[in-house]
Amino acid sequence: MIFSDREQQEILGYLDLLRGEINAKLDEYTNFGSRCPKSLSEPMRYSLLSPGKRFRPILTLLACELSGRTRHHALPAACAIEMIHTYSLIHDDLPALDNDDLRRGQLTCHIKYDESSAILAGDALQCYAFEVLSKHVFPKDTAGRCVAVLPEACGPCELVGGQADDMAWKESGPPSLEFLESIHHRKTGSMILAGLRMGAIIGGASHLQYEKLEEYGRNYGLAFQITDDLLDWVGDEETTGKRVRKDKSQGKLTFPTFLGVEESRNRAHEKVKTACDALDMFKSDSIVYKSLVGMTQHLLDRRK
Amino acid sequence: MIFSDREQQEILGYLDLLRGEINAKLDEYTNFGSRCPKSLSEPMRYSLLSPGKRFRPILTLLACELSGRTRHHALPAACAIEMIHTYSLIHDDLPALDNDDLRRGQLTCHIKYDESSAILAGDALQCYAFEVLSKHVFPKDTAGRCVAVLPEACGPCELVGGQADDMAWKESGPPSLEFLESIHHRKTGSMILAGLRMGAIIGGASHLQYEKLEEYGRNYGLAFQITDDLLDWVGDEETTGKRVRKDKSQGKLTFPTFLGVEESRNRAHEKVKTACDALDMFKSDSIVYKSLVGMTQHLLDRRK
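Output (structure tokens, whole complex):
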């Protein structure tokens, strides 16, 4: 799908609007005042409110709107997704794991504060995500359905399991493209899917709409991870806001390792196309549909 | 309340029975098979299935039975409480936090495995607790009410906030007994209360029953923490299964620091009495009631 310059501006404007709403809500939710020690709330907010792309929570809002309800209903679920994502970044960056010092263009949490603060801030953000879901999603049975989706996606068989395999893949036998895709599905794809599923549930999606959003999400997730791997190979630190050329030096499994840069790019193109095709039933001239497609196509031009 | 030798044996037998049921369910829930990498499930199970006292999940089962339903309804919630407790122990024992090498009579998770495994095992256990609650508590609206109770209790204003203040209390001004009680309420009391609340919700407690179990829990929590502080002063490693005399060397706030050993013992006696008095409305000759009272009185003879 080719957008005019004007449409592209509209899409960017809409995504900025959504990002602003998400940031404001994340700020509001973590204004604990004296109920939470500053030694904990400061590192939580430092990492959570840092300038992230917010593409996971944006997907939640767009899925809700595509399914038929206005996006403010999905803001708590969107924020919960971003809290889980941020907690996983804080812990992944720790010295015992990926040992990173730069994230979203700023010092990682344990460098800015210390390791104990980073561990506790991550722990608290994970837990708080579930509190936000259960307290702020309405009606209550919808909240219940969301709480059935999110923990599985970030649990031992998905997010954390993917991270464990990413750390210790050498113990799991000779690497294969299939195994790499399984790691990426769990580390990245499962949270993207969970965000889309919650958006669809809150938006009141039909069974078919729900399935199509899932199909979109699976392909978007892989396209995102392939382009993420490529960024580590060809990106620069100033634009990405994080250290690059780390995967290779740390012996991580990546798509370019298996397929080379060109074939990885082809694969990303293919996944983006399949993702957008899955959205056909939502096709319209609405800014919601166009933003979702535009944001997906934009993966191929990622600079960060 | 004074129990005969025979009653005491009955109580110990009943608590052993409950402990066995909890252990079997924890084992069952974490039998992930190939869905979860061994590098993650092994440290999770190592810590979770270690010989803990299980008093938190036992309280959940007893609260459910006192409120009128059989205890198997509350087993998922009891296991969720134990998972959260175990995750918090694994993370608290990390070098960046309390730096402990012994727990429940065995090596701590990061010593047995490594730091990254311990961080991820803790993360996964926290998340999995919510999955177990949302999937295995029935009916669904009861699961929803439980999911509204648990995250708050282990979130930034309770469990993790208490731990953060325990680490950094020196930044919060001159220590006071009130502040110490607030740390302990958040670190220990909030999870005990959450377990009792979930047990009461699942058991279908009346409003008054719920309030009385809360009153019991608040007093039990403080009595538990005072006796825990005393154990660090007067206990031995072989019996407690963890390092002792660490609080003083690490400059932690404890009850004996403020009150001395004798006055702390008096305070524990007082809390145990108030806790048991709060259970008056449940008074009966049933093994459930007697076990709860017996287990509370037993705090005063704690050796571990």
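The first helix of chain B runs from residue 5 to 29.
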